[in-house]
């Protein structure tokens, strides 16, 4: 029975990757590679900014004369408002294309980052982080769709793992700046946001110089051949198809939100308060906590890439389950030791599992989504899950204030919050929840979602992944049916 269960998680043979990864890599064009890198960079710079706060909790508390638990309110606000951004920018992307909505999104992110670096009061800081939450909410859906829909289907598992680890790369880059630059500048934590603004603006320029996704270019070309529609008509079609999608796929929407709630509790519960946990509960210096954070993100990056690649062969759900089991196995090493080397090793392997499972999420959501809404559906599901899990850092902060332990630092015994126990319990429960939800969910492994209609075409809202044709995208097949002079 156990063997039969495992087989049910592995995709059928005809849908599996048939050793074409190297061949597909060689077939990549410069434009495809550039589009993928742009999506990865967008998510990287977004994560860089988000973790600027997590890395500076204690410093911000001193600067604004607040407790660390109050500072984590900024993290909660950011997560709460991300859903709004996912709706707004996801709709714009599915309606108008990937290029200019993502460009505008990045410019707004850059502006808010600059504004954050100039705030003077704690309420101003909270307002800036709430606004950043709206902007950040739009990035993931647009970045993932930009990166994945232009790749050959054989590379989408690997691409998913790499693009999702833009999140870990952003955390790693922020940690490096915090370690090497912040101690030597008079601007303190504000310099982190200066650096974030530079990264976001550079990515926005790259997005402006990179062509639109081929899916939208083909759809527009096909529409032009067939007579086209006025902008107002296309908007009416888009609204109609959005309603049809929600009516046809509302159960899938609920499932995706439940899945992403668990995933966001897993990542934020293991990352957002991690530097504070090391400094407060283990007595490490800020320097040592930052180094440990960097080591953990190296584990995250490697785990994401390996899991994404593995999911091409053994399936999305089974890969997620395996890597979450790794998370459970390494929780003791993550929280019990007292030495830096052991804790750093625990952080590496725990994040190898956490972000390994996360590495499959972009492609799992893209293949699960109604195909015409690959920016809106995954983005909104992701950010609604974020909204539900928004208080994870505060839950841990409050839990730590009630569950306490004693440590000895420099011969002095201190009574401190026991973040180790709190985080261990939270991550253990979330891991068990995710295994169950993942197993019960759908999987459309290897689907050619690029062959579907776009959201401003009639009938797109009721499309299902299993009905999407294999092989050449629909718009290519239809264009090839036209005479050359008609195409021109």
General description of the model:
By secondary structure, the protein is an all-alpha fold. The protein has one domain: Growth Hormone, Chain: A (Up-down Bundle). 74% of the residues lie in helices and 2% in strands. It contains 22 helices and two strands. The chain has helices spanning 2-9, 21-27, 30-54, 57-64, 68-96, 99-116, 122-148, 156-164, 166-180, 190-209, 214-225, 231-271, 274-280, 286-314, 316-335, 340-359, 361-368, 376-388, 392-402, 419-440, 474-480, 484-487, and strands spanning 404-409, 412-417. It has a two-stranded antiparallel sheet. Helix 12 packs antiparallel against helix 16 (340-359). The relative contact order is 0.15.
Keywords:
single chain; 488 residues; mainly alpha; Growth Hormone, Chain: A; two-stranded antiparallel ribbon; 22 helices; 2 strands; disordered C terminus
């Amino acid at each position: 029975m156990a063997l039969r269960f495992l087989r049910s998680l592995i995709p059928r043979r005809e849908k599996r990757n048939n050793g074409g990864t190297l061949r597909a890599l060689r077939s990549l064009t410069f434009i495809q590679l550039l589009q993928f890198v742009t999506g990865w960079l967008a998510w990287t710079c977004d994560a860089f900014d988000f973790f600027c706060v997590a890395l500076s909790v204690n410093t911000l508390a001193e600067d604004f004369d607040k407790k660390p638990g109050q500072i984590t309110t900024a993290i909660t606000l950011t997560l709460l408002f991300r859903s709004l951004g996912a709706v707004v920018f996801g709709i714009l992307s599915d309606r108008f294309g990937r290029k200019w909505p993502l460009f505008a999104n990045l410019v707004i992110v850059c502006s808010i980052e600059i504004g954050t670096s100039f705030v003077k009061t704690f309420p101003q800081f909270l307002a800036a982080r709430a606004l950043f939450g709206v902007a950040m909410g739009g990035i993931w859906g647009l970045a993932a769709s930009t990166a994945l829909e232009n790749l050959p289907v054989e590379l989408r598992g690997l691409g998913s793992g790499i693009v999702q680890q833009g999140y870990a790369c952003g955390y790693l880059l922020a940690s490096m700046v915090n370690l090497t630059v912040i101690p030597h500048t008079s601007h303190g934590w504000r310099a982190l946001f200066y650096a974030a603004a530079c990264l976001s603006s550079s990515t926005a320029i790259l997005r402006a110089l990179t062509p639109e996704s081929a899916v939208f270019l083909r759809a527009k070309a096909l529409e032009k051949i067939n007579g086209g529609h006025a902008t107002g008509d296309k908007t009416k079609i888009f609204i109609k198809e959005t309603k049809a999608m929600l009516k046809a796929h509302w159960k899938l929407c609920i499932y995706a939100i439940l899945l992403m709630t668990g995933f966001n509790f897993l990542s934020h519960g293991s990352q957002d308060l991690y530097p504070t946990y090391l400094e407060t509960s283990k007595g490490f210096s800020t320097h040592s906590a930052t180094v440990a954070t960097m080591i953990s993100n190296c584990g995250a990056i490697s785990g994401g890439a390996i899991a994404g690649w593995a999911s091409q062969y053994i399936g999305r759900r089974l890969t997620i389950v395996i890597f979450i089991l790794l998370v459970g196995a390494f929780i003791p090493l993550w929280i019990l030791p007292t030495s830096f080397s052991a804790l750093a090793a625990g952080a590496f392997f725990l994040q190898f599992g956490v972000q390994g499972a996360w590495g499959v999420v972009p492609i799992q959501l893209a293949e699960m989504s109604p195909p015409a809404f690959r920016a809106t559906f995954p983005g909104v599901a992701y950010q609604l899950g974020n909204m539900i899990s928004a208080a994870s850092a505060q839950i841990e902060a409050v839990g730590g204030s009630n569950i306490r332990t004693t440590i000895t630092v420099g011969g002095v015994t201190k009574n401190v919050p026991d973040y180790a126990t709190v985080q261990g319990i939270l991550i253990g429960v979330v891991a068990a929840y995710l295994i169950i939800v993942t197993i019960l969910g759908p999987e459309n492994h290897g689907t050619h979602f690029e062959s579907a209609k776009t959201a401003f075409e009639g009938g797109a809202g009721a499309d299902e992944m299993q009905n999407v044709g294999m092989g050449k995208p629909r718009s290519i097949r239809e264009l090839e049916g036209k005479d050359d002079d008609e195409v021109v």
